UniProtKB/TrEMBL annotation:
One of its GO terms (molecular function) is histidinol-phosphate transaminase activity. Belongs to the class-II pyridoxal-phosphate-dependent aminotransferase family. Histidinol-phosphate aminotransferase subfamily. This is Histidinol-phosphate aminotransferase. The modification N6-(pyridoxal phosphate)lysine is found at residue 210. Pathway: Amino-acid biosynthesis; L-histidine biosynthesis; L-histidine from 5-phospho-alpha-D-ribose 1-diphosphate: step 7/9. Its cofactor is pyridoxal 5'-phosphate. Keywords: Amino-acid biosynthesis, Aminotransferase, Histidine biosynthesis, Pyridoxal phosphate, Transferase. It comes from the Bacteria. Homodimer. It catalyses: L-histidinol phosphate + 2-oxoglutarate = 3-(imidazol-4-yl)-2-oxopropyl phosphate + L-glutamate. The gene is hisC. Its EC number is 2.6.1.9. Gene3D superfamilies: Aspartate Aminotransferase, domain 1, Type I PLP-dependent aspartate aminotransferase-like (Major domain). Residues 26-347 form the Aminotransferase class I/classII large domain.
Length: 353
């Protein structure tokens, strides 16, 4: 608290990112980063940008990157917006599209940044409970709404929503923006991108941080009808004209162009996820069906707090929330095969002890 703060600052309750502690030999399965590293071509593209040209501002419109993403997804560059990580893209979406007289709807259990943005931008929100299986029930969204936002697959559950349900939401609210946050979609859910052609109220938000292993680069993007993209651009150009530096733009292009590496690393992570779920099930854990690069799991005989503490003693970090309904769940990122074996060994010892 400070007498120098604005009234707004006093009202904020900022997002708390997963910790990044410096423990030697730490196995960090708490922030859904990729264990496999970015495409070597993306790294080479960054190195190639380390020249005297860095004295020049980057392209404020990221034209080449937007063209590359448009071609990749079968869209027009006017349907593509890019920003400094998808968190920034989401922030612009909240400011540009999600504030209306009627409330913004999102699930009671979801990405914890959404309520933070609501405070920052003064948006009234209404949370809609997931069902007992932690699934989104789209029928519950048939109510007055200024806008809707959902991750697909949802975070931190990893549970995916079928495209037919997203279409139901879009049709039920033709005059409200519907934002689908596809941070984890590449790990096994169906993308809503094909629905952009028929629904001008749809915005699909994507990131390079998870499936493309570039969390440190800060690149996110959004896809939608040109008019919804224009709204984001108006906010961006009222905030920061140059959200992506030259290395970020070049590296993101190289990542998209390296489809072989992308597919290979996704397959490896999905295979390790299968192994991890089998191992957890053998130990008596109950794991939600995951379409992401993490699992959401609990043990009927052990509290989430005790399990997380026992893992931490063994230098393995996972994420847990002290929140209603999910306090006994651990969200565990899919790491390398070796990390997964160490995780399962540590849990075996914990449960036996
Ligand atoms: C990780 C994550 C993001 C943010 O990713 P950026 O690193 O900012 O691109 C957005 N939404 C969800 C649901 C996430 O889990």
């Amino acid at each position: 608290m400070s007498r120098l703060w604005s009234d707004l600052t006093h009202t904020l309750s900022p997002y708390v990112p997963g910790e990044q502690p410096r423990i030697p030999g730490l196995i960090k399965l708490s922030t859904n980063e990729s264990p496999l590293g970015p495409s070597p071509k993306a790294l080479a593209a960054i190195a190639a940008q380390a020249t005297d040209d860095l004295r020049l501002y980057p392209d404020p419109e990221a034209t080449e990157l937007r063209k590359t993403l448009a071609a990749y997804h079968g869209l027009d560059p006017a349907q593509v917006f890019v920003g400094n990580g998808s968190d920034e893209v989401l922030a612009h979406a909240f400011a540009a599209l999600l504030k209306h007289d009627a409330p913004l709807l999102f699930p009671d259990i979801t990405y914890s940044f959404y309520p933070v943005y609501c405070r920052l931008f003064g948006i009234e929100a209404e949370t809609i409970p997931l069902d007992e299986a932690f699934q989104v029930r789209v029928a519950d969204y048939r109510r007055r709404a200024g806008a809707i936002i959902l991750p697909n697959p949802n975070a931190p559950t990893g549970v995916a929503l079928p495209l037919s349900d997203i279409e139901t939401l879009l049709k039920g609210h033709p005059d409200a923006p519907v934002v689908i946050d596809e941070a984890y979609v590449d790990f096994g859910a169906d993308t809503a991108i094909p629905l952009i052609a028929s629904h001008d109220n749809l915005l699909v938000v994507r990131t390079f941080s998870k499936s493309r292993a570039l969390a440190g680069l800060r690149v996110g993007y959004a896809l939608g009808h040109p008019s919804i993209i224009q709204a984001l651009t108006r906010v961006k150009d009222s905030f920061n004209s140059y959200p992506l530096g030259r290395p970020a733009q070049a590296s993101a292009i190289a990542s998209v162009q390296d489809e072989g590496y992308f597919r290979e690393t996704l397959a490896a992570i999905i295979a390790t996820r299968t192994r991890m779920v089998e191992g957890l099930t053998a130990l008596g854990f109950e794991t939600l069906p995951s379409s992401a690069n993490f699992v959401f799991t609990r043990h009927p005989q052990h509290s989430g707090a005790a399990l997380a503490a026992a893992l931490r003693e063994r230098a393995i970090l996972v994420r847990r929330w002290d929140a209603p309904r999910i306090g006994d769940y651990l969200r565990i990122t899919v790491g390398t095969e070796a990390q997964t074996e160490k995780l399962l060994t540590a849990l075996t010892e914990t449960i036996a002890g």
